[in-house]
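Holo model, zinc ion. Inputs:
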Amino acid sequence: MFDQIAEKLRNAKKIVFTTGAGISQESGIPTFRGKDGLWRNYDAMKLATIDAFYENPKLVWEWYNERRQNIFEAEPNLGHKAIVELEKFSQVVVLTQNIDGLHQRAGSSKVLELHGSIVKIKCTVCDYKDEILYNFSEIPPLCKCGNILRPDVVWFGEGLPQDVWQQAIDHAKSCDVMVITGTSLVVSPANTLPIYAKQNNATLVEINPDETIMTSEMDLSIRSTSATALPELVSIFKK
Ligand code: OAD
Ligand code: ZN
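Output:
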């Protein structure tokens, strides 16, 4: 399996990685679904919607501060780093649902954050936006304009940043191989990216310890974690 995938990668002009929470799991960042998933113990509708935020901004900020702290302390793992290594050989684009910034910290040069970034903050009213690498002591934090600041992430019911999403579709439609790793592919519209890639006859590769709802659409699958499989794949690719 690894040999076949490595061969596809060697012949590809453009490789797109579609990633989700699972790629950061081995960096100590919990996923959303599955046995240790965040949505098992936390109610998404109370923490990750705009209505929940206005209802109880302090609660939502407490939860985001905890996640921010965890992410500040986390380091990119061998999976993130293997993707960076491939840039030496091909055009590589990362389309991620993750908000943790670990692909960029690992060194990937082309990352599109479909669901925003937990490191970034924006005002709920004016167009203030910034990257803040520490936690606020007073929550909810306020903007200079007097209104509440929020994490610059996409919550349930909100649209994706349109320019980012359009670029993501364009990359999906023009890649030769799409490697899908660490995502359950249940959240729309990110889960339509493999379909766009298929329109270009791209080879779809899934790296995930478990099957997903789109496993049957994949051309090749590896049932392993990303921090194990990706470095192995890259080392075979280089042989
Ligand atoms: P999920 O938590 O839904 O799925 C994580 C996937 O990663 C599962 O398929 C796991 O089997 C797999 N996985 C677990 N550990 C892994 C590992 N070490 N290596 C590789 N794969 C592993 O996460 P996402 O698909 O990213 O959105 O979730 C999508 C969106 O739902 C998130 O961006 C977030 C969430 O609600 C919003 O909050 C808007
Ligand atoms: Zn403001």
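Residues 109 and 148 are 32 Å apart (CA to CA). The mean pLDDT is 96.
Archived with the compound record.
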